[in-house]
Amino acid sequence: VAGLLGYTCYVIYLDRHPAEQKARDPNKKTLVILGTGWASVSLLKKLDTENYNVVVVSPRNYFLFTPLLPSCTTGTIEHRSIMEPIRSILRHKRASVQYYEAEASSVDPDRKVVKITDNSEVKGATVETEIPYDMLVVGVGAENATFGIPGVREHSCFLKEIGDAQHIRKKIMDCVETAAFKDQSNEEVNRLMHMVVVGGGPTGVEFAGELQDFFEEDIKKLVPEISPRFKVTLIEALPNVLPSFSKQLIDYTENTFREEKIDIMTKTMVKNVTKDTVEAEITKPDGSKELIVIPYGLLVWATGNAVRPVVRDLMAKIPAQKDSRRGLAVNPYLVVQGTRDIWAIGDCAVAGYAPTAQVAAQEGNFLAHLFNTMARTEAQEARIQELSSNLNLVQGGTPPAEAAQEIEALERQLKKIRNVKPFRYTHQGSLAYIGSEKAVADVSWWNGNLATGGSLTYLFWRSAYLSMCFSTRNRVLVLLDWLKSKAFGRDISR
Ligand code: NAD
């Protein structure tokens, strides 16, 4: 606690007022960064903003710590605890950064402009304008994949943004209160109390675990009359959940879910969604297929990522991108293939890695290092140019030895800094919460891998996520939320 207090005081002491920041220099190159997610914010954190005229565009004026988003759906954590306003992040930079709350709707790589759109509630109108760039970083992430399955967009909840978590939280309680309402038929109570999660990746698994905890720890006590009817079903098209984890952890998760009474339906592909049912095709052990209809009260759709329209539009304008399907194909320096001045990072980039927060953060850090180095290189080159032309001016006499020496030293330094190695991702491991105070972890440990699951892993999961939170403020708020929900139960008000 003393350490935390000390650190908080230190951060407050370091606080920089926007007026103390260096003004932007329009003579410098304009670097436009699209997005405020893991990739873009990691880039901004390490970027020396004095080197460029930096402009950030994103419709979301905060960074969201997505690993704890499933905990917001049940009120274990309050949503503001995992949000950090982008303007608080930017005010810590040495030179000021321009931020526009707007959506990038298209990029014109020939004219080097980004079209941005602001759906202003105050104005009650959509405002469109263009921003020119010298260098562009696309870090807009991805949208929810629906695979064109009918009814998904209309009837299910996603779990990507804060609004999604708030919507799910309200909908859970709507199902509970409606099921507890006077004179509901048995069939209707069963439907309302059936929570279906589609997609057995980490998002679906973590949400199913959180939901079961919520019922066991809170709803059972507060609304006991309907709690025996509560059921969570996790539907996955593949033969097992958590395909990216080791076999041992997949088995551990599936066994834990069985103990928690979460139904897992594997080899089951959802084909259609209606207002209150899911139609799915099960592949039986003999290979035959059966179509079943599952009534639900809440449906959460967590089947991974799809390309955003702005990215698809940009890909269509670059001939070298014609074979890329999952996003902007980039070279080892994260430059978008077929361009010289556009970089892509995070879930919208195809660099050969899974679309995770860890990859996005490392790509952002790499790009900050690359841009800082490029700026230093350009400054050194300009200085060499200046010294060389001074030397050439000295005619007839002996050239000043210091200038010649400085050129030599600068050229030696340049050689070193020009040698930036291409981006390489270092996997530090995967973590997932699976409910009833248990977690699974596939961690890279010195030379080997450690696969572990259970209550100790849960403590590790908690401390790892706490340390990864964006700011001290976030860390304190998350810690308090955990303590609060443990001591007083989760807040079930809608
Ligand atoms: P995912 O892509 O990891 O999993 C989606 C699952 O949905 C797949 O297993 C797929 O087989 C299944 N699916 C697709 N269509 C289906 C259908 N019609 N019916 C039934 N099942 C269907 O998605 P995610 O969990 O959202 O994760 C996205 C990315 O983010 C992944 O790379 C993941 O590793 C990462 N992530 C990691 C963590 C963590 O490490 N804790 C947490 C969240 C997300």
Number of helices: 14
CATH architecture tag of one domain: 3-Layer(bba) Sandwich
* Biggest pleated sheet: 5 strands, parallel
- The secondary structure category is alpha/beta
Bound compounds, each kind once, are: nicotinamide-adenine-dinucleotide
Percent range for β-strand residues:
15-25%
Physical arrangement of strands within the biggest beta sheet = 5-2-1-9-20
Described by the principal axes of the CA atoms, the overall outline is: elongated
> Rounded to an integer, what's the Rg over CA atoms?
26 Å
Multimeric state = single chain
Could you tell me the CATH topology label of one domain: FAD/NAD(P)-binding domain
| Helix content, binned percent | 25-40%
Q: Unreliable segments (pLDDT under 50, ≥5 consecutive)?
A: none
Give the rounded overall mean pLDDT.
92
Class of one domain in CATH? Alpha Beta
* Alpha-carbon distance between the two ends: 33 Å
Molecular structure report:
The mean pLDDT is about 90. This protein is of the alpha/beta class. Strands 5-2-1-9-20 form a five-stranded parallel beta sheet, with no helix packed on it. The chain is about 40% helix and about 25% strand. The protein has a domain at about 1-145 and about 305-375: FAD/NAD(P)-binding domain. The protein has helices spanning about 1-15, 40-45, 70, 85-90, 150-155, 160-180, 185-190, 200-220, 245-260, 310-315, 355-395, 400-420, 455-470, 470-490; strands at about 30-35, 55, 60-65, 85, 100, 105-110, 115-120, 125-130, 135-140, 145, 195-200, 230-235, 260-265, 270-275, 275-285, 290-295, 300, 305, 330, 340-345, 350, 430-435, 440-445, 450-455. The chain is elongated, with a radius of gyration of 26 Å. A hairpin with a 2-residue loop joins strand 22 and strand 23. The chain contains 14 helices and 24 strands. Helix 2 (about 40-45) runs parallel beside helix 11 (about 355-395), helix 6 runs antiparallel to helix 7 (about 185-190) and helix 11 (about 355-395) packs antiparallel against helix 12 (about 400-420). It binds nicotinamide-adenine-dinucleotide. Nicotinamide-adenine-dinucleotide binds next to helix 8, strand 14 and strand 22.
